[in-house]
Structures are given as structure tokens and as C-alpha cells.
Write a structure and sequence with these properties.
This protein is α+β, with helices and mostly antiparallel strands. It is built from 4 helices and 5 strands; from the N terminus they run H-E-E-E-E-H-E-H-H. It has one domain: Alpha-Beta Complex (Aspartate Aminotransferase, domain 1), CATH 3.90.1150. A 5-stranded antiparallel sheet has the order 1-2-3-4-5. Strand 1 and strand 2 form a beta hairpin.
């Protein structure tokens, strides 16, 4: 794994740990580093500039409008519950909030109900 992707992955792991997200697995998703819960990726690294968060389709537009410098859409993700994020543009606190939301979206319902973070 190139150093840039490795440092991005370390940042994602650290923020997920700080948020106290249970049962996070380090894995890959379509060949790229990802964090999963219940076998489902909630965040993955697309490339050295972009991560992809799991998110309900109906929430994507709101985030893109709120912070277009951070969140964006590409044809590949249109209509899918995935949101590209410019990793250099998002601060740790915002990213942690988005990781928690993505984790909740992908976690099995019983597990999600136990999380009080």
C-alpha cells in the first residue's frame, strides 16, 4: 500500500477508534483498504485524494450542497449509497461524525442499537 494511502488508512482507523465504534474490521473493498462492520464496508480509500463513505442516497445531496469543497458526486456513484470525500479538505471532527454515521448505516441493527457514542 503506498504511503499516502497508508497514512489515510491510519487516520481512518484512529478516528474510528476515538469514536469508540465497535466491531470495526480492517479489510479491503474492491481491492482498496476499507473499514467494515458486519462484513460491510462503511468507508474505503478510492485513491490518494478520495475516500468513499457509505451514506443513504437521500442524504448525499444535502452534504454536497453544505460543503461542495469536501463532498462531491461522480457518475460512478450516482444513485448508489456511496459518497466521495476529498480527504485533504475534511477535518478530523467532521470526518469522525461522518464515520459514525456511515458505521451506523452499515452496522447490523442490533449492534447499531448498542452504540452510544
Amino acid at each position: 500500500m503506498p504511503d499516502v494511502k497508508n497514512s489515510i488508512f491510519e487516520r481512518l482507523k484512529l478516528l474510528a477508534a476515538q469514536a469508540g465504534l465497535p466491531e470495526v474490521e480492517q479489510s479491503t473493498h474492491y481491492g482498496t483498504p476499507s473499514l467494515k462492520v458486519g462484513g460491510k464496508a462503511f468507508v474505503s480509500i478510492k485513491n490518494n485524494e478520495t475516500i468513499v463513505l457509505a451514506i443513504p442516497v437521500d442524504e448525499k445531496e444535502r452534504l454536497i450542497e453544505m460543503a461542495p469543497e469536501i463532498y462531491f458526486q461522480s457518475d460512478h456513484y450516482r444513485g448508489w449509497p456511496s459518497l466521495p470525500v476529498r480527504i485533504e479538505e475534511i477535518g478530523d471532527e467532521e470526518l469522525k461524525v461522518r464515520l459514525v454515521a456511515a458505521w451506523r448505516f452499515r452496522a447490523p441493527k442490533k449492534l447499531a442499537a448498542t452504540y452510544r457514542g
